[in-house]
Amino acid sequence: MTIILTNDDGIDAPGIKALKQAVNGQSMIVAPTQQHSGCGHKVTTNRPLQLQSRSPQEYAVDGTPADCTRIALTHIANDVEWVLSGINAGGNLGIDVYISGTVAAVREAAIHGIPGIAISHWIKKPLVIDWEIATQWTARVLDKLRYHPLPAGSFWNVNLPHLEPGASEPEIILCEPSTDPLPVNYRVEQDLYYYHGEYAQRDRSPNTDVDVCFAGNIAVTQISL
Fold first, then answer.
1. Pick from 93, 175, 180, 223: most CB atoms within 10 A?
2. DSSP character for 75?
3. Could you tell me the pTM of the whole model?
């Protein structure tokens, strides 16, 4: 059985390398050639997709994360056990799941009956992601979720917190996704509108994934189609 790894930050991003290190089992990378952050569940049907084989276990697709899942399931592997997406550089909490290319990759897998886990790392500025620690946390999460019951038509969405060096080890907490809106603010210059919503200033309803992650723990939500 094969585990497909993908992302929306691009095949050369450090997050997917960290994800591969965290996986205990046979895995294969099928990821976009370029970054597609915030592309949601966009798919490509109006042009051909180019598939580049970098090795028998690594393929680059000039398409979106959802395209990568489609290609992986239909033309690269026929014994897929899981689709894992990430580790995204930035949070995908609450209603972010509708915007995120990272999450779309595993949603596409769930549509085809394959379980998936999307993994993201919230960035608390001015801190910088420590990918070694992210790898360790992800390995813990995968060990827990790969054997946790998951109903058909569902997938896991995981968000790692951003902690100060030396902080206590975060707990893994299953919680509900937030439905609070993202901050929507624009700076207006004549007819130009510049988005400048502050992610860290979003509402954090108690016990939701936003609240859990911002409080310093690993937020895990079960999302259904």
1. 93
2. I
3. 0.95
